[in-house]
Predict the 3D structure of the following.
Amino acid sequence: MTFPSEYVITGDAKNNNDFFTATQKYLSTYAQKVNMNELMGKDENTFLKGN
């Protein structure tokens, strides 16, 4: 028996779970677009602004 990679949550926690799932998907997509090596090579102010 294996643990499912995704499972359905119902009841009071459903809205929280839906939010966390959507946030996780967004962050994984966003993280792929960010070039951290380029950002870290810039000065501190530019790094903090994310430009």
